[in-house]
Specification:
Layout: H1 2-10, H2 16-37, H3 49-59
Length: 65
């Protein structure tokens, strides 16, 4: 993002569509990461049942994987 802004400042040609597209993609990726970081809140909600089952299977003595 900084490099695109710097390049845009050095040249006289403007590319508002490409800058807008990259800005939206960057913002969407950042919001997706922030939303996935909180599995019980936000737009994407992920249950913890599978992780609890995995923990229980790993803690079981003598179980072969």
């Amino acid at each position: 993002m900084a490099e695109m802004g710097y390049q845009s400042g050095l040249t006289t040609a403007r590319r508002p569509r490409s800058i807008l597209a990259v800005t939206i993609a960057f913002a969407a990726a950042t919001l997706l990461i922030a939303d996935l970081d909180r599995p019980r809140e936000g737009l994407i909600q992920v249950g913890q049942q599978r992780m609890q089952e995995l923990r229980d299977r790993m803690a079981a003595p003598g179980q072969v994987w």
